[in-house]
Amino acid sequence: MEVKGKVAVVTGGCSGIGAGLARRFVEGDARAVVVADLRLDGAPEGTVSQRCDVSCEGEVAALVARVLREHGKIDLFCSNAGVMTPGWDLREADFSRWQRDWNVNVMAHAYAAKAVLPGMIERREGYLLQTLSAASLLATPESVVYTTTKHAALGLAESLAFTYARFGVRVSALCPMAVRTPMVNALDPTGASAGLEGVLSVDQVAEATIEGLREERFLILPHPRVADHYAKKAAHPEKWLRRMAELQERFTDART
User: Fold this and answer.
1) CB 131 within 8 A of CB 80
2) pTM reported for the whole predicted model
3) Catalytic residue of the set 111, 127, 146, 164
């Protein structure tokens, strides 16, 4: 897929990876780039912004309806918004917070797909780009809820990919490790365990995404070694679990 001449929507598009994607789409001569976020300051130049709480199905549906009304179609919907709640110990879990994370990290992708699929299927073309995380393939030892929700989001992306390919709809899962975003800066500027393969800039991730969309790859891996880690996890699960336990002790107070 080439973004030139396309109508793209990016949730979480006013900061971090979302803003980087939106800027790159504008530079790639997309016909329209709509960014949606809870706070609209920071919307990249050349984009149209709309406030949207992606954890609410009604607001996502309203976003899609407005874009269709104003632009006639949506070629590329980027479900990019995400949240991370630190905490490795389930004994201390706040499940009300888990529900919020579930709604943003999983259900928001489902809400968006439900809203845009009818138009894409009717046209027999369309693209869903879902920003997940390398944690969807591996894990984040610092956050049990992030690992859980990102694994679920990957399952959803896989299901969408094999279910709607026959209708011309393509799906990509963007799975970086640490990226220099407000989320990473607020939690640990080094990226903690996710930073072991380096912390990329949002522009590097956006460029890798453009390449992945052009090749229509399901897994877009800005940190290439994630593929090797994923293969080793599948081949040697017990060894991989031991390694994760070591990382958890290194980056948290998991010895307690």
Assistant:
1) yes
2) 0.95
3) 146
